[in-house]
Write a structure and sequence with these properties.
16 helices, 8 strands, mainly alpha, two-stranded antiparallel sheet, about 475 residues
Length: about 475
């Protein structure tokens, strides 16, 4: 391996592998935490048992996935010291505090209330338990806020100066945090997380509906997931368009690689498919729609779109990777829109729970959110190359003075450990998803009555027997 790749290339592979393994967990838990808060809120509002059954079902899965996300995230921070010490030293005065804020605000909030959410229903009562669930959901969103701010600063640096040691130092924290690409990336990522969760929940609900169409909990899952797909998938298309316009303004070389354009065009075509060739500087066998590329990217029929040849060769991202990762992400996004519209038609015809073809397709679409997130991450990060900080710090100048053999050995160790540990965790989560959601809940009716008494919400009557009293509380 060390004969084939340099230490920098191996360090990039290692970070790419660990980030890819990590990103699927927060992409799921961000959406799932909000879903749990909605479920518990609906249970408190309506008193309907089905919402609590679904809450208990996904709460266990959330706990396992959250744990895997924490472990996989810790590993990445160590690599800044082992493989990327120059990057850590030069960007530390800005990125260090931002990542510290994520721990202090987001992780502490999540960790502080997670135990209450998982184990505290009988101890604190429904209202405080709901507050704990809300705080966990807010914590996951705070985490996304800070991490996306860090990544966006690397893409579109702002609010910085450079000191005598060559380090980037903050001159305006507001400008650094809310850098030019940050709002677009934050919205895009949060919507992606919600869609990821929606299609996992929808797939699980559809799987159980194929076995039993009368399962109320499965019906609840599937219906809520399809509403999310119908509403959020089109919003994601719009958010992606705004994000693309921002990227065209600040990272035009990335857009050129995404679109497969090597030459600058007035009225650029939209290349649907083709085979980019960076050496020949052309996209072979291109299937094009005239002028549509400019219309999408500039909102003008004859708008100018710069090609890769407008940039020095050493500053160009590899179009052969970015071109295809971008198309995978877009194709999955439009497939999600299609599922949402299909579900709306089935709901209109009152066949949402009987449409077996829709259920089967929803099961197949279950992993689509993860795949789209990974494809989007590849587009974003590979499209920034050859820079770690866009236009300021090259990847080749960011690595530690370490031998390729050492990086290669740690990469192999990561691969073995990750596939063993997280493979086992993923297998366990899939087994949990295979259990019938409409089965007996961990909270029996007798236990629920006890919770109501303890919270002062009723006197000897269950929540389900007296929904009006429960709502008034």
């Amino acid at each position: 391996m060390t004969d084939l790749f340099t230490a920098t290339e191996l360090a990039r592979m290692q970070f790419a592998f660990t980030v890819s393994a990590h990103i699927i967990f927060p992409a799921f838990t961000i959406g799932l935490a909000s879903y749990l808060a909605v479920l518990e809120g609906l249970w408190l509002w309506t008193g309907e048992d089905r919402y609590m059954r679904v809450f208990q079902y996904w709460k266990t899965i959330f706990a396992v996935v959250f744990g895997m996300g924490v472990v996989s995230g810790i590993v990445m921070s160590y690599q800044f010291g082992t493989n990327w010490s120059v990057f850590a030293d030069m960007t530390g005065p800005i990125l260090g505090p931002l990542m510290g804020y994520e721990v202090l605000s987001a992780f502490f909030l999540e960790a502080g209330f997670l135990g209450v959410m998982l184990f505290g229903m009988k101890r604190v009562g429904p209202r405080l338990h709901f507050l704990a669930t809300l705080m966990v959901a807010v914590g996951t969103l705070f985490s996304a806020f800070w991490i996306l701010s860090v990544n966006s600063w690397m893409q579109t640096p702002a609010g910085y100066g450079i000191n005598e040691a060559g380090q980037f130092v903050p001159t305006d924290w507001v400008a650094a945090i809310f850098n030019p690409s940050f709002p677009y990336r934050l919205v895009h990522m949060v919507l992606a997380a919600y869609l990821t969760t929606a299609f996992v929940v929808g797939a699980v609900g559809a799987w159980h509906l194929l076995k039993d169409r009368t399962d109320k909990a499965a019906r609840t899952m599937f219906s809520m997931a399809m509403w999310m797909a119908l509403i959020v998938a089109p919003l994601q298309v719009v958010a992606g368009d705004f994000h693309g316009l921002n990227t065209l303004e600040h990272q035009p070389a990335k857009v050129a690689a995404m679109e497969g354009h090597y030459e600058t065009h007035q009225g650029a075509p939209l290349i649907l498919f083709g085979i980019p060739d960076d050496e020949a500087e052309e996209t072979r066998f291109a299937l094009e729609i005239p002028n549509l590329g400019s219309l999408i990217l500039t909102h003008e029929w004859d708008g100018e779109v710069r090609g890769l040849t407008a940039f020095p060769k050493e500053d160009r991202p590899p179009a052969e990777i970015v071109f295809w990762s971008f198309r995978i992400m877009v194709a999955l996004g439009f497939a999600m829109v299609g599922i949402g519209l299909w579900s709306a038609w089935s709901r209109f015809r009152r066949t949402l729970y009987d449409a077996s073809m829709l259920h089967r397709m929803s099961v197949l679409m279950g992993p689509s959110g993860f795949l789209a997130v990974l494809a989007g991450w590849v587009t974003t990060e590979v499209g920034r190359q050859p820079w770690t900080v866009q236009g300021l710090l090259r990847t080749a100048d960011s690595t530690s003075p370490i031998e390729a053999a050492a990086v290669g050995a740690s990469l192999i160790a990561f691969i073995v450990v990750y596939f063993t540990v997280f493979g086992a965790g993923t297998f366990y989560v899939i087994r949990l998803m295979g259990k019938r959601p409409g089965g007996e809940d961990a909270n029996s009716d007798a236990e629920k009555r006890g919770v109501v008494r303890a919270a002062g919400l009723g006197s000897g009557a269950s929540i389900l027997d007296t929904p009006s009293k429960h709502q008034s509380a």
